[in-house]
Amino acid sequence: MRLAAGVGGLLLAAGLLGMVVADLSAGLPAFVSEAGTALAPAPALYRHGLLAAALGIAGLAYALHRAAVAGPGTAGRAAPAALALAAPLAAVSGAVACSARCPLPPYERTTAADLVHAGASIAACAAIALAMLVLARQAADAALRRRTAAAAAVAVPLFAAVAVCLLAVGRATVTGLCERAALGAAVAWLLYLAWHLARRRHPAARRVGPAQVGAAP
Length: 217
What we know:
Layout: H1 2-25, H2 43-67, H3 73-95, H4 112-138, H5 142-168, H6 173-198, H7 203-206, H8 210-215
Helix pairs in contact: 1-2, 1-6, 2-3, 2-6, 3-4, 4-5, 5-6
């Protein structure tokens, strides 16, 4: 569990670094995904960074499941499942690049690749937001619950703002700013989750106390 969380956090951090460098190289375009288009300065760096981040999210999903901190019952399994769903969706987003300027309906003509890329990206963000909301409501670990609630209070409204901007104004500076802020908040939470799980002992190990060890033959 701790190894999966640590490796997941490192992959996520490395992927984030690659994506940020690619985004800056592209001149901070309206959409983050434009850094991965064929005409961008460093499309491979962006797309490989996103794939690394997807692997990191998968590692966190496994670690969260093993840690058993998401709460009891079906709802407790929802947070790891949401992250497990977000991982392949993020990988699809990295594997399928959008065309130049990443056009989106209803304001621009799109290709099939544009729709696949956008759909996977939006669904991945929604899955991460769902994981945050589940943990914020019922994580068994009080510290994780409080800090996730604080992160969700920032990230979820920002994701909602991105959706409103996409529908109301489409491609615009304000859309890009909201998108980067929302992604930044979500990634910051994922990195915190990796740190929290990496320093947490496995539940089975915590149940073995000194008396139990001394009683062993």
